[in-house]
Design goal:
Number of helices: 9
CATH architecture of the largest domain: 3-Layer(aba) Sandwich
Shape: elongated
Structural class: alpha/beta
Strand content: 15-25%
Number of strands: 12
Order of helices and strands: HHHEEHEHEHEEEEHEHEEEH
CATH topology of the largest domain: D-Maltodextrin-Binding Protein, domain 2
Radius of gyration: 24 Å
Distance between the termini: 46 Å
CATH class of the largest domain: Alpha Beta
CATH superfamily of the largest domain: Periplasmic binding protein-like II
């Protein structure tokens, strides 16, 4: 039994097609078919049920498939461990982030590249839900999001910093406010908010769920970058974590006085998975960058 045979079998089973598998693996269909046949001969059973148009797992294949996946994952983890020993001269690191973490992520990526220029970085910026699914699918080594009220027991989470939801506006547009802004005072400002589904918006909705306040919402947008550009060039205000305006010029942030307005930043690993040395280095740089720009309490 060879790893390549397992890899061919897993890819055909996943795609339910020899032709699609040959394209993703960049080898011929005949090679895939030949190697899977050898694997079946060795096991003495048919793993894939085939006809002229369809490919599906047999009863034996359904039982063998998760075992093959685990063997391939163990082999990948072993390879990663060996590469880590090589002083981070080779390897790949996949990091996911929600939109609001982009400023901190950008600076950390630059720091990491300067120290480890030969490590390939794959950066994915999307919603927390998609990031967590990618973690479970082992497509990410590390994810950065704000803490959710309900966690996932399959994900290992660590607090990076403590933050709060803030009212954010162009300097000079938030006059008359103290060190904090009350929920009632939010109704005084025309607002541009992040779209529903983004973590900042979820925090806003959770905070206001039991509050009797009518907000003047002028627009919603699913891009934090575009949202900040709009706020910086208008009288509109928004509500995001203060982390979102790190490095932005011409904006100010005032924390919102509400117990449900906490937005603690976290980094996440897949529980029980091997933590790459490059991921640990990335987290170290993330903490250093955060400490140099904020007064948040690191855990």
């Amino acid at each position: 039994m060879e790893l390549r045979q397992l890899r061919y079998f897993v890819e055909v089973a996943r795609l339910k097609s020899y032709s699609l598998a040959s394209k993703t693996l960049f080898i011929t269909q005949s090679t895939i078919s030949q190697q899977i046949s050898k694997l079946e001969e060795e096991l003495g059973v048919e793993l894939l049920a085939r006809d002229t148009r369809h490919v599906a797992l047999s009863d034996y294949g359904e039982q063998f498939y998760p075992c093959a996946l685990q063997v391939l994952e163990d082999a990948r983890a072993g390879t990663d461990r060996i590469r880590d020993v090589m002083n981070l001269h080779v390897g790949t690191l996949s990091v996911g982030s929600t939109y609001a973490f982009s400023p901190l992520l950008k600076q950390t990526v630059l720091d990491f590249y300067r120290q480890f220029p030969t490590i390939k970085l794959n950066i994915i910026i999307t919603s927390k839900e998609e990031l967590m699914q990618k973690m479970l699918d082992r497509e990410l080594d590390l994810a950065l999001t704000y803490k959710s009220p309900v966690g996932d027991e399959r994900i290992e989470s660590h607090q990076l910093f403590q933050s709060r939801l803030c009212l954010i506006g162009r300097i000079g547009t938030l006059k008359g406010l103290g060190k904090e802004v009350t929920v009632q005072e939010l109704s005084r400002y025309p607002l541009a908010l992040p779209s529903k589904g983004l973590q900042s918006r979820d925090t806003v909705d959770s905070m206001l769920y039991t509050e009797d306040v009518n907000l003047d919402i002028r627009l919603e947008i699913n891009s934090v970058r575009s949202l900040l550009d709009l706020v910086a060039n208008s009288s509109l205000a928004t509500m995001l974590s203060e982390e979102a305006i790190q490095g932005e010029k011409g904006l100010e942030a005032i924390p919102i006085a509400h117990p449900d307005g906490r937005m603690d930043g976290c980094y996440h690993y897949l529980k029980g998975s091997y933590h790459k040395m490059s991921a640990k280095k990335f987290v170290e740089l993330l903490k250093q960058r955060n400490t140099s720009n904020h007064n948040y309490k690191l855990q």
